[in-house]
Design goal:
About 55% of the residues lie in helices and about 10% in strands. It is mainly alpha-helical. Strand 3 (about 100-105) and strand 4 form a beta hairpin.
Length: about 200
């Protein structure tokens, strides 16, 4: 059901399911909105987990743990944020001894980021606590149901950006030239987007 917002004249969508209305994808969209609201309403609970990490810190450390040493631009691509966001977060992570910055041996103007032992320990502690909490809350789920849910969430994530009209940055690989990576990072750093602001203050 579409409604007109009287405050600004914009067309908005009523996500409340009406009896006898809608189809499977309308129900799917309502479920997505509910999941998003649930995750945002509990985001403050991250600070109660061990490790003393912010949400943005966790994303960076996870990329480094999963992919090993990489450039800041690669981290930005994986997290779908601007390079300037990653640059700001790396300052505090380096100061806290959780990541290490090294010069790229192939390009002296670039740098490589790696996960320090302290960062690996904190990330491991947080992951263990988070998984333990999930097991305590999803007591009626077995391993099969958990794996099926994980596969479905991965599939949704692969579809959601193009489905909502967004643009996912292409991932860099080892074949990407140093100059291409540097130019892309410079362009990202120069642009200020609402996404950068939201992630910094989120």
């Amino acid at each position: 059901m579409k409604l007109l917002d009287a405050t600004n004249g914009c067309l908005i969508v009523d996500m409340v399911k009406q009896p006898g209305e809608g189809d499977a994808f309308e129900e799917f969209s309502s479920s997505l909105f509910r999941l998003t609201r649930s995750l945002r309403s509990t985001s403050h609970l991250w600070v109660q987990l061990p490790g003393g990490l912010k949400r943005t810190d966790i994303g960076i450390l996870t990329v480094l743990a999963d992919h090993g040493q990489c450039r800041p631009g690669f981290i930005a691509d994986r997290l779908n944020v601007g390079a300037s966001v990653i640059s700001r977060q790396l300052v505090s992570l380096v100061a806290d001894g959780m990541v290490v910055r090294d010069k790229d041996p192939q390009d002296g103007r670039a740098e490589q980021i790696s996960l320090a032992p302290e960062g690996r320990l904190r990330l491991h502690a947080l992951r263990a606590a988070y998984i333990r909490g999930l097991r305590e809350q999803f007591t009626d789920w077995d391993e099969t149901k958990a794996r099926d849910a994980a596969a479905l969430l991965h599939e949704i994530s692969d579809h959601i950006i193009p489905a909502l009209g967004g643009h996912e940055r292409p991932l860099r690989d080892d074949a990407t030239t140093s100059q291409e990576s540097t130019d892309s990072d410079t362009k990202d750093s120069a642009s200020t987007t609402s996404e950068d602001t939201e992630d910094t203050h989120g």
